Amino acid sequence: MPLITERVALARTGANDKVICRMASGWAVMGDVQFLPGYCLLLPDPVVASLNDLDTEARATYLLDMARLGDAVLQATDALRMNYEILGNSEPELHCHIFPRYASEPDDKRKMPAWFYDWKNAVPYAEDVHGNLRRAIAQLLQKASTPDA
User: What is the domain partition of the chain in residue ranges?
Assistant: First the structure.
């Protein structure tokens, strides 16, 4: 089973411990590694091969969810800015990487794509370490989607 399909299936059954929340277009999840605290992904549900496989309405929903997730991560982390990447070369199913970028990053990394970090030796996601951040992002998304009373 392809990785994104597997992760979405786990999210649907409540077996993906990295789930932040269900969004209109899919699942917001924490990244497997947290070299940039707050790194997360948006996985579509249903899974499609690429953004181009979505109709106009589904594209708009996915891209708006992507920006909303970025807004929540930005607020939860006090990052300097957000980077968004939809690639699909290694995992040929739609997913967006959402990277908070920090002023405190090393000079040789701060101005480069996040792919220049050492992913193999990066800090893995752990609920006891990163769970508070995951929950904070979820609360910000919930608050943003709740109409003012």
Answer: 3-107+117-138
Q: Which fold has domain 3-107+117-138?
A: HIT family, subunit A (3.30.428)
Contacts 24+ apart (CB under 8 A), 116-119: 117/35, 117/36, 118/35, 119/33, 119/35
Whole-model pTM?
0.95
- DSSP letters, 10-79, are HHHTT--TTEEEE-SSEEEEE-SB-SSTT-EEEEESS--S-GGGS-HHHHHHHHHHHHHHHHHHHHHHT-
The pLDDT, as a whole number, for residue 145 is: 80
